[in-house]
Amino acid sequence: MKRSAFIVCGLFLSAVLLPLGAQNSLTGSVTTDDSSITGTVSGGAGSASVTISGPTKGDIATREKGGVNPATGKSTASVQAPPASFGNVSIGMDIESVKQALLADRRFGYRGERDVSLLAGENNKLIETDAARYSPYPYLDRCWFQFVDDKLYVMSINLNQEKLDHYSVFSALCEKYGAPTTLNPDKAEWVSDSMIVDLERPLCLKYTDKLVFDRIQAESGVEETVAEQNREQFLQGI
User: Fold this and answer.
1) What is the pLDDT of residues 85-138, one digit of tens each?
2) Which pLDDT does position 51 carry in this prediction?
3) Cβ distance 216 to 119 under 8 Å?
4) How far apart are CA 145 and CA 156, in angstroms?
5) Helix (H, G, I), strand (E, B) or coil at 227
6) What spatial distance separates the first Cα and last Cα of the chain, rounded to whole Å?
7) Phi and psi torsions of 17, nearest 5°
8) Are the C-beta atoms of residues 136 and 106 closer than 8 Å to each other?
9) Where are the strands (E) in the chain, listed by range?
10) What is the pTM of this model?
């Protein structure tokens, strides 16, 4: 944080200003308010203090409430909600509509029914395209479109790492959608009431229907609970 950097600088400068002999018995203190930070260093030969006005607790709170995007340093007035679409393809579309949208957009390299498959063990379909191989568009790589109950639930758009880099894509997302909801070494995630948008490493944009995701997670938890109960019943009956 900038505030911590200011404090350290102030204490360092104070220590330098004191006589050499007094530096062996230095003591320091820091006080803050909503407009300034004051660092004081005292020694046997005297004391010195530095007061710095800058981003303090009040400023940071203002920024977090919407004044400035902490990821970009710019105004958040134009920040949008995480999107549900990439190009003409939108989460929630039925499979036939997605096929038509992919055919109309050459960027994805969609080749028709040969790119559609049935997921093993599920009554759900998957469309997989290879844009790097079958599209003249240079910025996309392999893409996946997963359906649940004939509705597009997840789409994963791999980006061409020879043309784009993680930092540029991350900065562009922060510019449009604000600071990510969560951030870790594997991904940055933007979450709204209805959507989850991830930027996964090395370079994949993933759009997920949050309502369907939450429902699947809840159903999965119920299934695990029933399985555990059956296991306990079996062990008790031995």
Assistant:
1) 999 999 999 999 999 999 999 999 999 999 999 886 566 899 999 999 999 999
2) 52
3) no
4) 7
5) helix
6) 60
7) -75, -20
8) yes
9) 27-32, 37-43, 46-52, 85-86, 89-90, 116-118, 125-130, 140-148, 151-159, 182-183, 187-191, 195-200, 204-209
10) 0.63
- Quote the tokens at residue 150: 């004939």
Q: Which two tokens stand for residue 185?
A: 């070494």
Determine the 3-state secondary structure of 33 from DSSP.
Answer: coil
pLDDT tens for 146-189 read 999 899 999 999 999 999 999 999 999 999 999 999 999 999 99
Which pair of structure tokens corresponds to residue 7?
């404090």
User: Which token pair is 175?
Assistant: 């510019």
Find the Cα–Cα–Cα–Cα dihedral 5, 7, 66, 204, rounded to 10°: 20
Residue 193 CB neighbour total at 10 angstroms: 8
Q: What are 3's two structure tokens?
A: 């505030």
* Per-residue tokens: 190: 């933007």
**Residues contacting residue 227 through CB under 8 Å, at least 6 positions apart:** none
